[in-house]
Amino acid sequence: MPFFSIIIPVYNRPDETGELLESLSRQSEKDFETIIIEDGSALPCREAAERYAGPANVRYFFKENGGRSEARNYGMERATGEWLVFFDSDCIIPPDYFKTVKRHVEQGGFDCYGGPDAADKTFSTLQKAINYSMTSFFTTGGIRGRKNGMEKFLPRTFNMGFRRGVYEKTGGFRDMFGEDIDMSLRIRENGFRTVLITDAFVFHKRRNTLGSFSRQMIIFGRSRIELYLLHPDSLKTVHLLPAVFMCGSILLLLLALLSPWFLLPLALYYSALICEAAVKNRSAKVALLAPVTATIQLWGYACGFIRAFAMEVVLKRKGDKEAEMKRLKFK
Fold first, then answer.
1. Mean pLDDT within 274-298
2. For site-directed labelling of 126, which of 166, 214, 263, 316 has its Cα 20 to 30 A away?
3. Nearest Cα to 197, choosing from 271, 264, 112, 278?
């Protein structure tokens, strides 16, 4: 029986899945199985799964499309490992990842872990700019992957693992927006200890177009309200900041019609953001694109958050969420 069972839901990403499996085949710690759940893809990754069946100990399953949560639950039901580990199919795993995690597990003291994400040097300029926006303190992304952040750390399924006993106690992932945060909250509510392993990071490609990134951010904003309705204590001040930023930016732009001096706060903010992006990425192209991705992140999240708050909290209207979930089974 392997120590780790890696569970990866896949939907129409054969090339990226091949890159992920290639990185898993190069792990220095080999005590794992890899479970690929092809969730009704029109572009299956079966060939890549078969190519790495030996080097990455791959078990491949094809099922009718049901979404990420159903696919992960399907994988957990078939896993044999002591620890269940989750990656997104657009991740690349550093060679010492499982060696690092196993060292921490053997030291004991926790039941669930998560790790940060980063941009690999091979990623496109846009992917690096999106990664910067998602991890920068200037966009509230800096709360993720930090021990001392504005929000208590909650693992996400692009880099997350927990003991089999956690799954048996809490059950599987719910079919909802923000299903990984919901799972992390339920793990905490059931008395299990969660930790951040800062040196167990993954390279995460994220979106590859500004349009798909914008749609993802809107979903993230909406999911925060759905999480609030399920877990009222989960809504923190930091989750309001994107909406405050968007409304404040609109107000300053309107006031700038009276005097251009009202643009000074925005100019200072974006100047600081560009400088940080340039230093972190050592790239002028990434730095110049960072204001665009940061604005999309903050405004997209804010729009989803405000709309969901108005509809579901103020007006008590759920809308046709089931139809939208079906349309957005995979982000």
1. 96
2. 263
3. 112
